[in-house]
Amino acid sequence: MFGFMMDDQLSIIALLRFAARHHASTEIVSRSVEGPIHRYTYREAYKRTNQLAHGLAKLGMRHGDRIATLAWNGYRHFELYYAIPGIGAVCHTINPRLFAEQIIYIVNHAEDRLLFTDLTFVPLIEKLIGNLPKLEAVIIMTDRAHMPATTLPNAVCYEDLLDGNPDTYEWPSFDERTASGLCYTSGTTGNPKGVMYTHRSTVLHAISTCQRDSSAPGAGEAILPVVPMFHVNAWGVPFGAPIGGFKLVFPGARYDGEALHELLYDEKVVVTAGVPTVWMALLDYLRKSGKTLPDLRILAVGGSAMSRALCEAWEKEVGVQTAHGWGMTETSPAAVNNMLAPKEASLPYEERMTYKLSQGRGRFLVDLKIVDAEGKEMPQDGVATGELCVRGPWIASSYYKDESMSKSSWDAQGWFHTGDVASIDPEGYLHIMDRIKDIIKSGGEWVSSIDIENAAMLHPAVAEAAAIAKPDKKWGERPILAVRLRTGVQASGTEIIDSLRGALAKWAIPDEVIFMDEFPYTATGKVAKRLLREKVLGAAAPDKVAS
Ligand code: AMP
User: Fold this and answer.
1) pLDDT tens, 348-366?
2) Which is it for the CA torsion 397, 401, 402, 403, positive or negative?
3) How many angstroms separate the alpha carbon of residue 412 from the centre of ligand 1?
4) Single pTM value for the model
């Protein structure tokens, strides 16, 4: 027997409509690409989103069309996040840091009909446009006064597209499983793979984003996603914020320490979210300038592992609690968060640190397990390690238009195999050991490159560290460590290696240290281990899969 409850379909536009009604005067503050700070409220954002929907209709956009964005975190991008899925189309966010060939590939693979771009990327699109035959128009996200002279055919001014349109729109109803967003993963070899989100997956993910244990602030408090809207929906913050009534603060094109500090300070931001490299740079700025962040409570860290050095520096020097989280493009992305429960928070310091540096506990509705090479489930005892597998309503069930890729990542029971090696302890905390392709196999032992990096980062001269495998006749592979030193500080390779003794097992101590001026990064701001292996080892680089 079925119950008698309404069967409303979940829809993304409902999130913003809710905020326009119940958090109407809460602000959205953006550093605009043109320069000045822009402010408006959820009420105004919703009105403009309605106007934008009319603009999309005028350009002939229909249900199911793919519409691309190449843009920073800002209010116009926010409007696109809602108007595009609102009309039943798909918002395809593109990472501008991808290689040009990858951008061409994904725009053509997605068959995007329109591309919305910030001023910053107009020269890039001018170069690529000849290879994008399906694109019908490029909308430049600015006003008439700032429209650049461009060689782009069919360039449209964003504000012209909205101007004069009614500020109400008859949003269509459709099945909650309708495609709403598209984001491509960013491997450094092979073609990117498309992850197609739905209204249902996005709304459920957004609701879970608003929980205290997902590092959320409270209604009216400010959150600043440094994590970009052009990759994995800025960890879902732009969708969660309207539900919780959070004040949204967008950093625009400026991610440097000074600009971030200014916004965090002036807008009294209490939660901010981003990858470790951004927090290292901001920490550097705070140390040099002596400036403080009195309102900031939580620094959410994910995308790659947070080192102990980073965690301790933020907590002890800046007085801000770090909160680790884990996710992937395929997981919408947030699946695991780490706000320590009172029991773990009150443990003696060293034990507390072990929990603090773990990735945290799974969110409700996300199932986690670890499996061995044969796919057999391993115990969640905090000791056994295996490949992390996930399931849930906001986990991808296949890649978009790519059957062959899909087969290799999902098992017969529908679990998604993440490519991460992890353990899960009896309290449910996830400890990521490494990516399978980055793990170092030395004489039958698995050595975590993340553990070596975390230990190396505790050396006062080390600004950044990455461990990679070097082929070795006797041991199969041996770890070597690439290091970037802090400006003006010296340390020898031997000193750094000596500092690791005691902290790591004997076989995990790197054989040598290579000094780098700069690390190669992936499009999502992580150290590109495959490129690093090629750079450091040249022809001797082990034949591991892409990173
Ligand atoms: P992406 O799809 O680009 O977001 O990358 C997802 C991958 O980033 C995961 O499979 C992990 O290897 C890595 N990752 C994300 N968050 C963390 C974290 N907190 N600690 C360690 N690795 C992480």
Assistant:
1) 999 999 999 999 999 999 9
2) positive
3) 24
4) 0.95
